[in-house]
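Structure tokens please, single chain.
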Amino acid sequence: MTVSVTTAITKVTGDGAKTPIPTVFVFSTEADIEVIERVIATGVETTKSLTTDYLVIGGGGTGVPDEGTVTPVNNVPTTVEWHVRRVVAETQGTALPVAGALPSTAIEKMADRVTMEVQQHSEELGRTLSFPKTDSDTLDPTIPNSVERSSKYLTFDSSGNPTASAGASNLEDGTESAPALFFKSEPGTGFYLVAAGNIGFSINGTKAFQLNGGELSITGKISADGGSAGAPGSTIVGDTDTGRFSPGADTLAWSTNGAERTRIDSTGRFLQAKTASASIGTAGIELGASTEGLMVTTTAARPGRFNRLTDDGDILEFYQDGTEEGAITVSGTTVSLTAFVGAHPSLWDPDFKPAIDPPVGTVVTTTERMCEWLIDRVYDADSGDFLRHANRHERRKKIGEETITDIPEKREGRKLVEKARRERSVVEKYNNKRLLSIKVSDTKDEVCYGIYAGTNRDNGNQIVWGVGLCGEYGARITGPFTRGDWLSSYGDGTLYSTGAKRGDNDVARALTSNKGAGAVEENMVLCILHCG
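Here you go.
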């Protein structure tokens, strides 16, 4: 027979039934038929199985090829297409006799088979670039020439025809465990889209970092090369000689313009403008919490500046064991050492010693004479040396305490020791080189030293332990005053109001000794600023 139909494929859409599908084209046996099911919405293809999914009726068998039908075993959904194709094996099984009459039927059968094979290949070649077999045969499979597609991506237009494009290819969003762009040998490592404008990078299926706009978030830790002062391990974009580097183990440093400026060494010591801990004579700043504390040294400029922008008050405070002991205070153009907490010892000057103890709150001032302290020292008759009063062990040893340890009554033994101490001790004077002696303020407008706070007597030798530097002591005052007045010595051990207040002229400030903070009791005022 003739093969007049050129097509080798029949396509139908499912109707929800088992409707037989005419082949239209001729074929020999059921083995020449292939059925592919395509989901219309997604394009997913599935090759169906003979007998299980469909049955073939007709065909030429061993004789002349003929048409037939393909009948589905189950209902074909309306959401799919069935593509019935002819796939003839590329073999030739007919043998012609060597002599005798020419078997026309056999020759025709051979010609039909070749024709079917040609049609089959024509159908497949029409789909090169290996388009899916169910694509339209109207697609143009020709790709752009080598010049047009050079250094470009192979893309497809809206109809699915191949084109060349310089734009970037599209990727799926991917996930943390399955990145869209990954490595062949490690599919869990690569990039994926976390959210709009947020890109993540996974390593072995776990997010390592993500970039959200201009913000980089790291799941682990960042490690950088230690670098050097001229080429820090961590730098600024466009300024590669400025940044952080490590000059050695457990040491961190920062440089600008290729030179080291700041360092924290392995002990936690902070160094500015120096690279190692040095003496106070070396220029730079050094801060160590458990070593030298703060050391500031400059070659020519001031080592430090302190600026209080508003109001009078403390510029620098001093503490000992968590308790404030004093402060440096500013008032206008006057800078004072003040606000000491507690009383400080001194002696009355012999030439100005009052006949009786003055009233508490009396204003006192200093003299040019150093205090002469009366102390008790022990004389060692054997060596002829004096022993310090504070060395109690040596004193007891020298006066024979060890020789009376066999006395049964300890109380009696102590009495003997004290008697021996008194017999062998003498009173001696020595100069205290740290404190000046004091007198009652007897000159008007004289800057005061402090406030007399009380007297302690030891062995008949008068020692004043109660000179309070203004800040928490009440001073005796003559005449009325208003809170905030500048106060000055009146010349009789009391203060009086100058009438000047904070913000008045500098002359008034220069004459003042204190600033009245408020009344403590009658004729007493609490002084909060000492200008001496």
